[in-house]
Write a structure and sequence with these properties.
Chain A: Keywords: Cell membrane, Copper, Electron transport, Heme, Iron, Membrane, Metal-binding, Respiratory chain, Transmembrane, Transmembrane helix, Transport. The structure holds 3 protein chains of 3 kinds. Chain A contains 21 helices and 2 strands. Chain A has a two-stranded antiparallel ribbon. Helices cover 65% and strands 1% of the residues of chain A. Chain A has 2 domains: 50 residues, no CATH class; 607 residues, Cytochrome c oxidase-like, subunit I domain (Cytochrome C Oxidase, Chain A), CATH 1.20.210.10. The radius of gyration of chain B is 24 Å and the shape is flat. The termini of chain B are far apart. Chain B has a single domain, classed as Four Helix Bundle (Hemerythrin (Met), subunit A) (Up-down Bundle), CATH 1.20.120. Chain C is mainly α. Among the domains of chain C are: 54 residues; 45 residues, no CATH class. Chain C is 60% helix and 0% strand. The chains are: A mainly alpha, B mainly alpha, C mainly alpha. At the B-C interface, helix 1, helix 2, helix 3 and helix 6 of B face helix 1, helix 2, helix 3 and helix 4 of C.
């Protein structure tokens, strides 16, 4: 041991001991039983149906960017659910524990969560929602869509892509295991100095938080490099920069941010580790440390990270609006410039998270002005989307509803953001729930865009559409929940309610908190609607099959290949002639032209190394958290050795012959023809037929 | 339809990549690695930012400051070792250009030995400080000094392992697309360490010495 | 995508290596480091000027290394590396510069004013008074030479 630890430590198990398992906790113990039973059922089912080989060969060892993307999205959705449950718990505690006469259960004076447990819940909620729900969901979509949209067969580095996924999975596993082994951090998702120092937070919570975040940072950096290199180096012939779809542009901007900002987070966390493990004095209150330095380093990453998650969401909206407005995106060039401008300005605003540090009027003014500048490119985007819809032939299907919802939330979040950019106002509402309501509005823009994208791109990935009725039901329930939770939250913020209260002293706020609880119940129903949506859609998938162009009005390259996308993406890479290539080909009646000749193509092999490395990083994170030094050394050596061994073996890849390719392509075309035949007798709700007509009308409206 | 301004004649347009252009695996690899190196540079920039905040008089909390223990000529010895190592690796890469396996391996071995000298000098320096009771737990300023310099040394350490791995790969596999790509990325890594060292040497060691 | 027949050592990024370039990069940077070290140890320049001089040394050395060692130029094969570097440099400066600015302003407002002369610019601080080095027994200052 390098620093004096409170509590026990043994060479074999580090700080781990039976007493660290919260088997007496009335909330966690039943949950643990449920998780174990659920896991046994799932593993049993996989064994019963003999799917282990399939799972290993097709998913766990895959380097196919689409499957990796799907797994990213599954991780994201699972963590979104976990984070949602945390949110439900927070709301329930706050509506319960109001005033001195409120009751208390499970050892809590008021409500049902002790302050320590409540602290863990909101810390986990924040960390999970931003880094393990929003980030993997967006990375997943970028993974699936970007290579197809630029006309590539895979990412620039397929193996690295798999590695990024499994490191992210390791991070998710680490935060999940903190539920049942030890505690999680209880000081907020971004922590504060010096309370995270060992003497104030002696448990393993901060360590779990730190290593989870460190793993996410590593995984996201790897993914970011991959997407950047894919966009720069793997574009199909003819795909010049001026023809890139906006989603690719926003992914580019987002990953530039990821690549540049995540190192700052890694440094901030690394220095926390130096403090907690080696006794350094970076962020201590005495001994020459500077506790605001932590806040500074964290938000150097933290604010760009906000734009890292919002930019792909903007890109998604920019894909959905034109498709369902049957018009090209308004103001392509300004959209590109706006995305780049947002990425650039995102680097100049981080102090607005801590105006109250007191760096003085010069500094605060500079950062205030820089923050307000963000409003310009964002405003450009909002107007561009509005003008895209203006005089378009709008289809209000569920994906479009989510995108429009995102637009409205962006207005709310944007305007409140402008208010918060003014230091005078910021001092008043700092750390109040007004801030919480503001950033939830912004993050909900992302959630709305993600659900819109799930509906929009689902048929591309799986070959059938999701059920429109349940998708719309979910949308309206979710939106009702949003209004009910966040309108009262804005009001409470003005009344001075601070964030993270496990006990609400002002009984006058009871009615607002009750409305918010009602809102979260409506959210619960929307989550149920989502599960029903998945069930109904999978049940009826035969009815909802689609051809290559699922919506009939899509514009970009991904809709030119089959649905579901074959593992090689394009049998023959397309040559790009125009921006919105598919729309252009459709307009000129050449969208059905097939390549005449198939050549051999080269594909990478699957590898089990990535998932093993992911597992080892999980072990390393766990060992570091519990200070099991021998295990740290063993897992670190194993990681290095495995990487060296892999580099000696390399991957020669394999060849798919032109003849084989032709056979697979013809089969896919046959399948598509059947789908289109059946659609003529059963028109699908929300789908648009008569595509060529739509284009003519579009042109005449100019 | 003719109303739509189109620069390409759809009847004659090229729709598929029939010329089958192959993409350049090596430059894709080097670009990605360069992007990683820049993010690594960002890591150092953040460390320098932390050092900037923690190198005020009060950051040392009355304890030892770099002005009291930095020996410029000793550290200049480290500089020579590292720069020579980088030069040796560069000569090795020049041998690669002329397909000389022995020239490459000699260059890399020399780079390795010089890198080890750098690291030994660094470890000796740090253990000397430790013997005087100066550690990263001494004060906030010392934490910043130690972590910044030792993160650079850690990079050197992993670079040395990588050089050994590459020597083994060149000897067993020769000049394949993969080994050559890795040699190029290792060159960028190793040369970037020299660039970072300029900043560390000037702004941490020398500036610390004069302030 | 597999080149098979092509010789990887003929790749342009291999071919751009030159012994002369590497040697120039080495010679320029080592000479500048030598100059900086000599100036610093001789104490012949006042501290603030010294800081300026060694900063210039570092700047030229880094430019030489980036040009000769990392091959950053606008040729076809290096253009993306150059673009990426040019995009990163402002961020390096922002990270260090804005952090330094906000904390110098903060210290100006929150630290004891009597030590401000040394705090605002550590480089111009002349150690007229003995250093507070009693705490860890480090009371010798072998290189203070004034």
């Amino acid at each position: 041991m390098l620093v004096d630890l409170p509590g026990g430590w043994s060479p074999l198990l580090g700080r781990l001991a039976w007493s660290q398992i919260p088997y007496a906790n009335p909330i966690l113990a039943p949950l643990f039983v449920a998780v174990v039973i659920g896991a046994i059922i799932i593993l049993g089912l996989i064994t019963y149906y003999g799917k282990w080989t399939y799972l290993w060969k097709e998913w766990l060892t895959t380097v196919d960017h689409k499957k990796l993307g799907v797994m990213y999205i599954i991780i994201g959705l699972v963590m979104l659910f976990r984070g949602f449950i945390d949110g439900l718990m927070i709301r329930t505690q706050q509506v319960w524990a109001v005033g001195p006469h409120s009751s208390g259960v499970f050892g809590s004076l008021h409500g049902y969560l002790t302050p320590f447990h409540f602290g863990q819940v909101y810390s986990a909620h924040g960390l999970i929602m931003i880094l393990l729900a929003a980030t993997p969901l967006l990375v997943g979509f970028m993974n699936i869509i970007v290579p197809i949209q630029v006309g590539a067969r895979d990412m620039a580095y397929p193996y690295l892509n798999a590695l990024g996924l499994w490191i992210t999975a390791a991070a998710a596993a680490l935060i999940m295991i903190s539920l049942f082994v030890g505690d999680f951090a209880h000081n907020g998702w971004f922590e504060y100095a010096p309370i995270f120092e060992l003497q104030y937070s002696p448990g393993v919570g901060v360590d779990y938080w730190m290593w989870t975040l460190q793993l996410v940072a590593l995984g996201t950096t790897l993914g970011g490099i991959n997407i950047l290199a894919t966009i720069i180096k793997m574009r199909a012939p003819g795909m010049t920069w001026g023809k890139l779809p906006i989603f690719v542009w926003t992914s580019l901007a987002a990953n530039v941010i990821a690549l540049t900002s995540f190192p700052a987070l890694q440094v901030a966390l690394g220095l926390v580790a130096a403090d907690r493990y080696l006794g350094a004095h970076f962020f201590t209150a005495g001994m020459g440390g500077n506790l605001m330095l932590y806040t500074n380093l964290f938000w150097i990453w933290g604010h760009p990270e906000v734009y890292f998650v919002i930019l792909p969401a903007f890109g998604m909206m920019s894909e959905i609006f034109p498709t369902f407005s049957e018009k090209p995106l308004f103001g392509y060039i300004t959209m590109v410039l706006a995305s780049m401008a947002i990425a650039g300005v995102s680097w100049l605003v981080w102090l607005h998270h801590f105006f109250t540090m007191g760096a003085g009027p010069f500094v605060n003014t500079a950062f205030s002005v820089a923050t307000m500048l963000v409003g310009i490119p964002t405003g450009v985007k909002v107007f561009n989307w509005a003008f895209t819809m203006y005089r378009g032939r709008l289809t209000f299907n569920a994906a479009m509803l989510w995108a429009i919802g995102a637009l409205f939330l962006l207005l709310v979040g944007g305007f409140t953001g402008m208010m918060l950019a003014i230091p005078a106002i910021n001092y008043m509402v700092h750390n109040s729930v007004f801030v919480v309501a503001h950033f939830h509005s912004m993050l909900l823009v992302i959630v709305y865009a993600i659900f819109g994208s799930v509906l929009y791109w689902f048929p591309k990935v799986f070959g059938f559409k999701l059920d429109e009725f349940w998708a719309k039901t979910m949308f309206w329930l979710f939106s009702a929940g949003t209004v009910l939770v966040f309108v009262p939250m804005y009001m409470l913020g003005f009344m001075g309610m601070t964030r993270r209260l496990e006990y609400v002293f002002d009984t006058g706020w009871q009615s607002y908190l009750t409305v918010m609880e009602l809102g979260i119940v409506v959210y619960v129903f929307s989550v149920l609607a989502f599960f029903i949506l998945l069930y109904v859609s999978v049940r009826d998938h035969a009815k909802n099959r689609v051809g290559a162009d699922a919506w009939g009005t899509s514009r970009s390259l991904e809709w030119m290949t089959h649905s579901p996308v074959p593992f090689y993406n394009f049998a023959v890479l397309p040559h790009i002639n125009e921006r919105d290539e598919l729309a252009w080909r459709r307009q000129h009646g050449i969208d059905q032209v097939r390549p005449e000749h198939y050549e051999d193509i080269h594909m990478p092999n699957n590898t089990g190394v990535a998932i093993i490395l992911g597992g080892l990083t999980f072990v390393l994170g766990f060992a570091l958290t519990w200070r099991i030094w021998w295990l740290c050394i063993v897992s670190l050596l194993a990681i290095i050795l495995l990487m060296i061994i892999r580099s000696f073996k390399g991957d020669p890849g394999y060849i798919i012959t032109g003849a084989e390719l032709q056979r697979m392509e013809e089969e896919a075309y046959r399948r598509e023809a059947q789908v289109l035949d059946s659609h003529h007798s059963h028109p699908v709700s929300g789908g648009v037929v008569g595509n060529a007509m739509a284009y003519q009308r579009n042109d005449s409206s100019k | 339809m003719s109303a739509h301004a189109s620069t390409v004649d759809p009847k004659k347009a090229e729709l598929w990549d029939i010329h089958h252009h192959s993409h350049d695996v090596i430059s894709t690899r080097t670009l990605g690695y360069f992007l990683y190196l820049l993010s690594d540079g960002m890591l150092f920039a953040t460390l320098f930012a932390a050092y900037g905040v923690l190198s005020y008089q009060h950051s040392y909390f009355g304890g030892p400051t770099p002005a009291e223990f930095v020996k410029p000529w000793y550290t200049f010895g480290q500089t020579i070792a590292l720069f020579l190592s980088v030069l040796a690796y560069g000569f090795g890469m020049n041998a690669l250009k002329h397909k000389s396996k022995s020239g490459l391996i000699n260059g890399m071995l020399a780079a390795f030995v010089l890198g080890v000298i750098f690291l030994v000098l660094d470890i000796h320096d740090m253990s000397h400080l430790y013997s005087m009771g100066i550690t990263l737990a001494s004060s906030g300023g010392m934490s910043a000094f130690m972590v910044l310099t030792q993160v650079h040394a850690t990079h050197i350490f992993f670079g040395l392992i990588w050089i050994l791995v590459m020597i083994a790969q060149v000897m067993t596999k020769g000049f394949t697309e993969e080994t050559v790509g890795r040699l190029l990325t290792l060159r960028m890594f190793w040369h970037l360490q020299a660039v970072i060292w300029v900043f560390v040497y000037i702004f941490v060691y020398l500036w610390g010495y004069i302030s | 995508m597999s080149h098979g027949a092509t010789d990887p050592t003929m790749h342009p990024e291999v071919q751009l290596s030159t012994s002369k370039g590497y040697f120039l990069g080495f010679a320029i940077s080592i000479a500048l480091m030598l100059l900086a070290t000599a100036l610093v140890t001789s104490h012949s320049v006042p501290p603030f000027g010294l800081l300026m001089v060694i900063t210039v040394c570092a700047g030229i050395a880094v430019i030489a290394q980036i040009y000769f060692l990392l091959h950053i130029d606008i040729s076809e094969h290096n253009i993306w590396n150059t673009v990426a570097l040019v995009l990163f440099i402002p961020l390096f400066l922002i990270t260090i510069g804005l952090t330094w600015w906000m904390f110098s302003q903060l210290y100006l407002r929150t630290m004891d004013m009597s030590v401000m002369s040394s705090v605002t610019n550590p480089a111009v601080h002349a150690p007229a008074t003995p250093k507070l080095s009693d705490m860890s027994g480090m009371n010798k200052n072998p290189d203070s030479g004034n």
